Amino acid sequence: MTVSLTATLDELIRDVPDYPSPGILFKDITPLLADHDAFTATVQALAEVGRDSAGTTVVDKVLGMEARGFILAAPVALALGAGFVPVRKAGKLPRETHAVSYALEYGEATLELHRDAVAPGERVLLVDDVLATGGTIAATRELVEKCGGTVAGVAVLMELAALPGREAVGALPVTALLTV
């Protein structure tokens, strides 16, 4: 990632204090999404995590977690020539699912994945907007493993350095475009 992209991300990601609850500093990515050039550069940088040093795609699927992860993961999957799989909140998927509950920075949640969304042996890239406590990434990894797949890596737009996200995801390789 270039210094220019870092500066652009710093400029376009806005802080919103006390949202969605008091004490939370929300990172608003909508100005970034509205800027075509910055959004394109962000998607390309995230997609690099799913390639080897020769530029060959090394993942079969890209998983994005509800909801902002969808926005980033779908174009990353297109850039990689891989399939996109949504990881949804409980009760949003129409067929048989695996489910995992976990703690958030400001509450609890349950994520679900269709049981056949990841085939045994498939390698996947997890893409999300923020690595905070690591609960979402850890829960999604568990869902992938229940399907028989392997998480090859994690790509996030930003990592909140004050929170223990990397500890929660263990040895998974994590790439964050911005650390705040």
Overview of the molecule:
This protein is an alpha/beta fold and 180 residues long. It has a single domain (3-179), classed as Rossmann fold. It is built from 6 helices and 9 strands. It has a 7-stranded mixed β-sheet, sandwiched between helices. A two-stranded antiparallel ribbon has the order 1-2. The two termini are 16 Å apart.
Quickly name the level 1 CATH class.
Answer: Alpha Beta
What does the largest sheet look like? 7 strands, mixed
Helix count equals 6
Q: Number of domains in the coordinates?
A: 1
Averaged pLDDT, please?
Answer: 95
Helix and strand composition category: alpha/beta
In angstroms, what is the radius of gyration? 15 Å
User: Major sheet: order of its strands?
Assistant: 5-6-4-3-7-8-9
| Share of residues in helices | 25-40%
CATH fold call: Rossmann fold
Low-confidence stretches: none
The share of residues in extended strands comes to: 25-35%
Succession of helices and strands: HEEHHEHEEEEHEHE
**How far is it from the N-terminal to the C-terminal residue, by CA?**
16 Å
Morphology call? globular
The number of strands is 9
Topology:
Layout: H1 3-12, E1 14-17, E2 25-28, H2 30-34, H3 36-47, E3 61-65, H4 68-80, E4 83-89, E5 97-104, E6 107-114, E7 123-131, H5 135-147, E8 150-159, H6 165-169, E9 174-179
Parallel strand pairs: 3-4, 3-7, 7-8, 8-9
Antiparallel strand pairs: 1-2, 4-6, 5-6
Helix pairs in contact: 3-4
